[in-house]
C-alpha cells in the first residue's frame, strides 16, 4: 500500500479503511479476474502518463452521537461539525493531479480539483486552505469528494459517478494520480492519440497483429489484386473513437461466430482491410482524406463493402462521398453508429461520458476475461489510456467550438451530420444495413453491469441524459437508423435490433454472436436468415462469449451548436421510410441555458498539461515576492558555452471570456513551430535562440480591464519537446481588455505577446492576439532588467509592479496607490518644478539642481517600494543597464533618483538616467543586438524655418556634424515640389524608411505637457497668399499610420533621433515627444524602428548637438547603445541646463553598431 504521508497526499474528513469491502478489495489482492482487470487499469493509467501515488479505500470517520439532554427542558447538543471529505495532493511545479474514485459494483468517477467545480460560498471562502504553496514552488490541489450543499443540477453536471460521493457513507476506493501538465490546446488534443500510427491495416491473421505498419502494405495487398480478370472485391472496416481497427473489431476473433465470419470473409473478398486513424484532432472529412490516400492503390472500379462502428459511420459515409465516383461501394453495415449524433456528445455531458466509459470498459473487461484472452486486456488498456488522456486534456479543451473537431462532428445537428444527410450523400452505394440496440440496465446482470452500476446507469444516463429514449448507453437508438435523406431507414431484413434479452451495450456489440451472424448473412450469405430475430443463445453458449475481446467505442464531446432539425415530412410520391417498428425521430437536444458555460473550467494548477510528455522538464513556479540569490559584490564565474536551442512561443485564451470568472491563459514553449491561428491565439513565427541551461520566465500582466488571478510570474525549463504554463485572468467589466505576456530568460526579453480580449457579460467569441518576438540573438552579460508596469485596478487604485531580474536577481514587488492618486497630476507637479529649474539662469543652476535632486528622491520614495530601492542599491556595482518596459508616456522614469537607503548620502548614485536606463514598449518587436549605421543610409530632417525667430543657430552645425561622422553621405529627406515638408516626410516613412539606417530630426517640438500622445514636430512652414507663415506640423498620429522601417515579421531596423529644441517662445517649457516613441516603435504597419532617441522636453540646440555628436561617435566606435547614451549625458553634464537629463532612449541596451 502506498504510504500517503510520503507522497504528499492527505485525507481530510475521511479515513483509510483497512478492512475494505470485498468488492473494493478484490482487485488490490492481485489475483483472479479482478486482478487482471486491475492490471489493465493500472497499465492504461501508466501509459497515459499518470503516476498513481496513492491507492486507498476510504470512508467518513465515525461521528459520535451528541449526548441526550438531562431533562426534557434541556436542548440537545448540536451534532459535531464534520469537515467536507476531501483529498489534498501536493504537486511539484509543472505537475497536476486527478483522483479516480471507484465505488461498489464498478462505478468509476473522475474527480477534478475544486476550481473545476462551481464552488459554493463555503468552498470559495476556504480557498486559502485548499490551494496553497509550499517551498520551491510546490502547490497543493484539493479534491472535494462530497461538496456540501451541492444542488442536484450541479451534481448532474459533475458526471455519472459523482453520486457515489454526493453522500459519502459507504467506503470508496480512490486512486490519486499525478502527471506532467501540458501545453496548448491543439497540441494537447493531438497527443491524446499521439502514439496511434495511422495507415492501412491488413486484417489477415490474428487480431493482435491488426496494426498499421505491421506489414509492408500496400505492396502485398496490391500483389493480391494484380492480374484479376474482374474488379477486385474489398471488405473495409472503419473503427470508432478512442479506438483502432484492432480495438473496435478484435472481439470478432473471440467467438465461434466471429471467427467463422472472419475466415469466410477472407475467402470471399480479395482483401480485408482497415485504416487506423485519429478520431479526436481531425473531423470525419479529414479522416476520409486519409482513407483516400490509404486506398489509392486500389484500381478504379474496385468493389468495396464496408462495416463501420460508432463514429466510424460518419467516417465511412464521408469516404463514400469522397471516393464514390472512383470505387464502387456496395453493402454498408453500420453497427451502433452515430449517424444522427448522440446526446453524450453534448459538452454538458462530458463528465458523464468519461465516467461512463471508464465504468463500462472495466465492467466488460472483468466479464470477458482479460486473464483468458490477452487481446481483451490489450484492447481495453488502449481504450482506457485514450479516455485518461482525454480526461487530462479536458481542462484545456473546454467547450471551444471546433476545438476537438473529431468529436464535434458527433454532436446532433453538427455540420458533418447535416452534410451527410443530403439525398446524394451515399450516391449509388447500398444496400444499407444497421445493427442497433436498446440496453436496459436492469437486465444487464449477465453483462457485468449490475448492482449499483446498473442503478447509476439507469438513473444518470438513461433517465437524465437520454430522456428515457432508447439507447445503447452511448448512442441514441433512433440515431443509428437516421441517415436523413441519404438513405431510407432500414427495415428487416436490413435492420438487426438486438433483443433486450441479449442486453447489448455499446462496447460489446462484436462480442455478441448474433452480431457476427448478421454480418455473415448480410455480407457473405443468405440475407433471408438475418430477418429472423435471434432467439436465446444455444445451450452452453452464453449471450456474450467469455474471453471475447473488448471494443472501445466512439463518442465524445464536441461543442454547442443548433440541435438537429426534425426530419421533413414525406409528401406523396416521395420515397418513404419503413420498418416493422419504425423508430421515433431522433429527439432534438434541449437547450439548457445553465449549461452554456465552460463545462470544464481549466484545471487549476495545471501549469503544464501533457499527454505523457516524458521529455518535458519540470516547470519552476516563482514565489512572490522571491528572494535575490546573489551577493551584491559577488563575481560570477564564467559559464561554459552551451549550444543554443531554438524555441517557439504561443499564448492562447478562451475564445469566449466572461467577466467575473477566471479565464485560462496558456503559454506554450515548443521546440517545433506552434500552429495557433485564429482570433484567440498568437504565436511566434520564427525560432528564438535560448539557452538550454537557463529557465524561461513568463510574466502575465493585466494592462487594462482585467487582472491576473494567482501567480503572475512562472518559470519553465527549456523542454526537449514542448511544455506549457497556465495562468488565470479575470475581467472586470464587459468590454475590451489588454493582457501582456512577457517571456524572458536570464533577465533578457525573448518575446512579447499582447492579447486583447473582449470580455462579455455572457458568452462571446472575440479575442485578438498580436505577437512580437525576438529573433535569434546573443545573450547579454551582467545586466539587470527592471520592468515597471502601471496597472489600473477595478476599484480605481493604481498598481505599479516592479520586476527586477537578471543573473542572480529575481525580485518582484507591487506598489498600490489609492484611487485618488493621479499619475498625471503627480508627473505634472514633478515636471512643473523641473520646468521652473530649467528657466533659471546659469548662476542659479546648481542650486536648482540640488532642489530637483531632493524632489526626485522624494518622488522616488513615493513611487518605488523600499525593497526595490534596497535591491538596486545592493546590486549597484553589477547593474550596468536598467530596462523599463512600460506603456505610459507620462512618467519620466529617467528622473527618479536612487541613493543609499541607509541614509547619509555618502554615495549617491544619481538619477536612473545615469544608471543606464533604456526603455522599451509593450508589444513592440524586441530588436536584435546589431545596429546598422551605413553612411549612405543616413537621412535627416532639419527645417529651414521661414520665420527668422524660429531658426536654430546650430542647425548648420548639426548638418555638418552628420556629414563629418558619416563620410559626407548623410542626406536630407527629399522634399517634392508642391508638397509641404510634412507630406514629403510622410511619403518617405511609408516608401523609403526601410532603406534608412538613421533618421535624424533637428527641429522645434510643440506639445502640451499632458497631451504628449498628440505632440507635433514643427517643420518648415509655407507662405500663404496673405503673406503670413502657415506652420507645417508633423503629428505623431501621422507617423504611426505610415512608418514602415521593416516588413512585417522581420527584425526591427532603423534608428530615429528626434532633437526637439527650445524655441524661446513665451510660455514654452517642458514639451515631450513620448507620442513619437510610440509612433515610430509601434506603427500600425508593425514595421517599427529598432531605436528611438528623443528629449522629454525641449532642449537647447547647442547641447542637443553635443549630445547627438557624442552619442553617434560612441556608437560608431563600437560602444553598446546604453554606453553611448551614458557618454552623451556625461558630455552635457558640465553645462548649466538639464539637457543631459532630457533624453529618453528606447531600444536594446546591449545593441552595437556594425
From TrEMBL:
Q: Which residue numbers delimit the DUF7363 domain?
A: 651-755
Which Pfam families did the record assign?
Answer: CHAT, DUF7363, DUF7379
Q: Enumerate the InterPro entries for this protein.
A: AB_hydrolase_fold (IPR029058), CHAT_dom (IPR024983), DUF7363 (IPR055787), DUF7379 (IPR055803)
Q: Which Gene3D superfamilies match?
A: alpha/beta hydrolase (3.40.50.1820)
Residue span of region Disordered: 64-88, 552-593
The record places domain DUF7379 at 235-420
According to the UniProt entry, which residue ranges have a biased composition of type Pro residues?
Answer: 555-570
Domain CHAT, by residue range, is 950-1147
Q: What is this protein called?
A: CHAT domain-containing protein
What species does this protein belong to? Answer: Novosphingobium silvae
Upper taxonomic lineage: Bacteria, Pseudomonadati, Pseudomonadota, Alphaproteobacteria, Sphingomonadales
